[in-house]
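Example 3.2
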Amino acid sequence: MPSNTAGRSAHLTPRQLQLLKMVAGFRENQCYSPTLGEMACELSISRSTVFEHVAELRKKGLLCGSPNRARSLTLSSAALELLSCFSERSLPANHHKLAGIPLAGRVAAGAPVEAIENVEQLSLTGCFGSGDDLFALEVTGRSMIDEDVREGDYVICRRSRVAENGQLVVAIVGEQDATLKRFYKERDQVRLQPANDDYQPIYSDNCRIEAIVIGLVRKL
C-alpha cells in the first residue's frame, strides 16, 4: 500500500513541487518566507500563476500562513516530510562518510598537552544537535565585528519566536530583511544592538524574532 507521502507526491504538479522546494530553500537561507513577487521572479512565472499554485498547495495542506501578512508562508509538517523523502532519495551512497570530520584529539593554545589520537567524528549535529528547528546562515556585513562575528562566518541558529535580553538573535524589522543583533526589550519597543560603533542601534515596535544564535563556524 502506498504511503501518505507517496500519495501527496503523486497529486503534485512538477511546478507545485518546484515551488515547495523553492519556499523551503528560501526559508533555510534567509530565515523568512519569500513574497509572491520573489517566487514569481525566481521561477520565471507570473504572480497570478504563483498565487494559483499557492492556493492549491494550501488546499492540499502543504502550505500555511496568513493570507494578509507578508512573509508568513510556511511549510506544513506534511510538506516537510514530503521534501525530506525527496532529499533522502538524492543523497549520495557515501553521504554518511561526508557527515563529519575526524576528531583526532586536542591541541594546546596555552601550555602544551599530551597528544592522544582519537577516532571520533566531529560534526555540526554532534556539536549542536539536530532537528527541523536548526539551520545556518552566512554572515554579511560588519555590524557584529566587535563580538568577533565576521563577514563570511556561519552562525548556527535555533528557530524561536521569543528571546531573552542580551541574546544574539536573527530578527526581522517590519517587512525588511533579517538582521543579526543583540536583543533588548525596552518598554513598548525593542532595541537591536550592533557590536560596531559605525552602526546605530535599531529601535522598533514591529520586530519579529526568527531564531536564537547558538554557535558559529568559521573558515580560516
